[in-house]
Amino acid sequence: MVLATGGAGFVGSHVVVSLLTCGFDVVVLDDFSNSQVEAARRINKLAGGRRAKFVRGDVADLRTLRDLFRTHRFDAVIHFAGLKAVGESVAAPERYYDVNVSGSARLLATMAEHDVSRFVFSSSATVYGLAEKVPIAEDAPLDPTNPYGRTKLIVETLLADVAAARTQTQIVMLRYFNPVGAHPSGMLGEDPIGEPTNLFPLIARSVGLAGQPLRIFGTDYPTPDGTCIRDYIHVQDLADGHIAALSALLSTDLARGVALPINLGNGHGASVRQAVAAFEVASGRTVPTIDAPQRPGDVAASIADPSRAAALLGWRPRRDLDAMCRDMWRFRVLNPQGYRDAAEEHETPR
Ligand code: WQD
Description:
The chain is α/β, with parallel strands linked by helices. The chain has eleven helices and 14 strands. The protein has a single domain, classed as Rossmann fold (3-Layer(aba) Sandwich), CATH 3.40.50.720. It has helices spanning 10-21, 37-46, 62-71, 86-91, 93-113, 147-165, 199-206, 235-251, 272-283, 307-313, 321-334, and strands at residues 2-5, 26-30, 53-56, 76-79, 118-124, 170-176, 178-180, 214-217, 229-230, 232-234, 259-264, 270-271, 289-292, 301-302. The longest helix is centred in the N-terminal third of the chain and has 21 residues, at 93-113. Pathway: Carbohydrate metabolism; galactose metabolism.
């Protein structure tokens, strides 16, 4: 049985569907502060009759955690729950440290109390900061440039200390590059609560009713077309990566006594203009854009070296940028208002 904290979120929901489809029993702990109950209902419709058990609660609440671990025997924990908006973390660092760092520490302490020793951490390429060279391997310098990235690095450091203290643990830290796309059914996708800040939700919004043009942050970078390059990774490939990591922890001695970082990225990049062009092809719509100044904190290029994931997990991304755009567009067409299209709020599904 697997505990997935934050399993109703964008990446978490896609992973939970894959876990169920692969035959795992899953309990999801989510406070629904940055996810929708409707996503939980759809997860349980997508997994061929298999259903996750959803518990509404805060990962930082020790009573909630202890009740959960007292009533379930978990073989592993996948920890998605956390705050992830860079700009918001600059404005509200206290909240980011509380949720991302304290929440992780309490979860790990409760795991130790109940001898649960396999842990998959949802980390981020943000821990690399302004990478000196690309592609970026896991042994590159770690120098995050914002509070969000620093909370991820602090948790990674905590995990290294946990692994040193309890050598029977197996811990992998999956460093996502830029997750994009949606479930091929069009039933799950990225539906940020509040104002989106990531590129693709903003591209999609620019072709929506609002027709708000996309601002291209910086056209004077030292890149072929002057715009930033990122390593976009399909959320379904991310889900496959989590299944591969979990299977390796359950069937081998992978990461015994260490906290092992593993990049999940494509290994090649796309510029903002290339992303816009791919979305226009997939949607058949024109994306209105305006050139804008560089966004503080952005790096010119961030591209993964995914060779460790291939070597240790047998994982390789299988979906390209066109597939990301096609799947994302399908979700947007079927859910113009995201999950809010669905019926009114329901009780947390059991
Ligand atoms: C991508 C590119 C922008 C919006 C962030 C988080 C990271 C991870 C992924 C969680 C950049 C440009 C964007 C816009 C633009 N999240 N852009 N106009 O900053 O690479 O990474 O999301 O783990 O932690 O930092 O992604 O989508 O914000 O930006 O031109 O309106 O698109 O400048 O070059 P980023 P992003």
